[in-house]
């Protein structure tokens, strides 16, 4: 059976203008450019801008319930201190030595926090503990645990400071540098930074 | 209203057109995104196999009602499944892979120029919308370039935008869930995933990426389909739609309003206010977009009522999901047959509008058994085939 074609609006309308090859190429080029700008150019610009910043006198770093005072002469490594979607992190540097502070909400036990931090740091290469864990206490009275690890290329000192009652019960402090670098003045400066840790949530309560 | 009907003359072109630069660009970008995201997820599967598998399963199930809802809104001209799939894949792989490095870069630049404190508070609000909305919008434009005619109305743009946004939203949620497992210490891999599912899936899922991109897609749909309007006006509408999508994303990610009403219930109130603002806007835009498509649908099929292929009541029943359901319940025939007729009517509108006489006549023959609410046109009943 045949039908008369109804004069529907669709048939009565003029066709949409065709897109010429220039428009199609420009469209594709625009999409490519936007992707490259975001995924390649922006990271390149970020890499090109120096990441180390001197720390102003009197600066106090705060991380989810904890505060600590940086040692004089240390710089802030901004690229390493910015984390998207995984909480806050502060990374300082002095010469070849880095000092990273993060919080860990997994457990309130400092010893477990230290071991977890070592696992996360080591990746596929196992960090070797070169000293037994030892108890530490900050000037403000917070308890913690500290342990020294080593690899062929680095010494790593991991400390965990507890803040009872806080939603972020541990502050993990990791100092790392070439073998033998965590001694002398640097060791004193690292100890001073760990000693300066206070709990803001404890103070608030 | 001189506007959108010209789309009907251009049914979606086939995807495989080797001469099109966008085809190869899309292939490269999808491949890049697949490699990037797969390597990320393989690492997560190694570290947290149970939690990662659970996150994938949970959010895969979560995706289904969203897809159903989006397709339900696309009443008058259902989009081809391969194109919808491509839109989803673009959001899930291309936009996410690009946004991850872009967001980290913007975070670093903000911290270096405005300070760590500022960056900690404002990076999500500034970086998120800027990289993510641009990359998702690129996906909607890629669909338009890949299959010219696919985005032939404001509503088409909304549908593709929603699919791109949904793909992004699902993968982002899975990434957040994996992140939450890592942050929690991974002693329990399930609880953090459930927490993220409640927070990002249930509490904020309705007004997330699918909504932002649907709004932006509406603007692109308008610009591509309203040929009777000036180019300046169409570009302005698309730009405003992008601005609104960007602005809603910015507002959601920003700390604005979060503590305005206090803690606890106050935060929930702030979340609701931010979310409902976006939902209200998209509801209004959808209403206009649907009205435009409905107008086209009725006009396109009005000739079929005159020629006796459809009844007026049957055509009127097609104008909303609710009316279609009600018609199926009340019609004299079995709901399965009525549902099939409704699908055929949608197909017929597409064929008539595309000028595909052969296909239109085939559909008319299939439709010809008498509509449930009127007698058969003379001579038709003997030749028609319902099934």
Task: Please tag this protein with its features.
heterodimer; A: 205 residues; alpha+beta; nine-stranded antiparallel β-sheet; three-stranded antiparallel β-sheet; 6 helices; elongated; disordered N terminus; B: 387 residues; mainly alpha; 2 domains; 13 helices; disordered C terminus
Structure description:
The complex is a heterodimer of chains A (205) and B (387). Chain A is built from six helices and twelve strands. Chain A has 205 residues and is an alpha+beta fold. The longest helix of chain A has 28 residues, at 21-48. Chain B has helices at 21-47, 49-73, 81-114, 116-146, 154-184, 190-203, 209-225, 231-253, 265-306, 312-316, 321-330, 335-354, 357-367. Chain B has 387 residues and is mostly helical. Chain B has 13 helices and no strands. The chains are: A alpha+beta (205), B mainly alpha (387). The interface between A and B is large, with 55 and 79 residues.
How would you summarize this macromolecular structure in one to three sentences?
The complex is a heterodimer of chains A (about 200) and B (about 375). Mean pLDDT of chain A is about 85; it is low at about 1-15.
Radius of gyration of chain A: 27 Å
Encode the helix/strand succession of chain B as letters.
Answer: HHHHHHHHHHHHH
How many helices of chain B? Answer: 13
Morphology call of chain A: elongated
Structural class of chain A: alpha+beta
Unreliable residue stretches of chain B: 1-9, 375-387
Largest sheet features of chain B: none
Strand content of chain A: 25-35%
- N-C termini distance of chain B: 38 Å
Strand content of chain B: under 5%
Oligomer: heterodimer
Class based on secondary structure composition and strand pairing of chain B: mainly alpha
Number of strands of chain A: 12
Q: Which range best describes the helical content of chain B: under 10%, 10-25%, 25-40%, 40-55%, 55-70% or over 70%?
A: over 70%
* Number of separate helices of chain A: 6
Count of domain modules of chain B: 2
Our measurement of the CA-to-CA distance between the termini of chain A, rounded to an integer number of angstroms, reads 86 Å
Radius of gyration of chain B: 23 Å
Tertiary shape of chain B: globular
How many strands, which pairing sense, and closed or not: the largest β-sheet of chain A? 9 strands, antiparallel
Count of β-strands of chain B: 0
